[in-house]
Amino acid sequence: MENENKKELKNTVTVRIAGAEYTIKTEESAEFTQNLAKEINSKINEIKTVNPYVSTSQIAILLALEYASDCKKATERTEAIRSEIKVYLEDTAKAQSERDFYKREIERMKAEAKSKANQINLFSDDKK
Fold it and tell me: What residue ranges do the domains of the chain occupy?
């Protein structure tokens, strides 16, 4: 069971970020990993352009905080959406249950009306 929870790191990808080369083992595709590295490299260069005196490690920490913040917010939004979906599913189940009840009630009333119509017809036939 423990091995089922571990994701297989099947790809080895080499990326260049801020002039340094990193070899990464990942479950993601090489293209995905390269695109992430390009995005990070672009953000580092953007920050260095604005403030060339900030060290690469300081920039890396700032970017890590930014990505962690984005990830946490996305997780919170996902949980909120899951909660909304759960409410919608419960409402849907309740509505379906009510619909089924009213369908049965209509069928019961139709049968009752048919029975009463048959009784009326019997009385009508008796008077002829």
Answer: 2-126
Tokens 């009752």, residue? 112
Residue 18's region, left for phi above 0, alpha for psi from -120 to 50, else beta, is left
Residues belonging to the chain:
128
Task: State how far the Cα of 41 lies from the Cα of 17, in Å rounded to an integer.
Answer: 5
50-55-58 Cα angle (round to 5):
95
| pLDDT tens digit at each of 128 positions of the chain | 445 556 677 899 999 999 999 999 999 999 999 999 999 999 999 999 999 999 999 999 999 999 999 999 999 999 999 999 999 999 999 999 999 999 999 999 999 999 988 888 777 765 55
Q: What is the pTM of this model?
A: 0.63
What distance lies between CA 41 and its chain's CA centroid?
29
Write the single-letter amino acid at 1: M
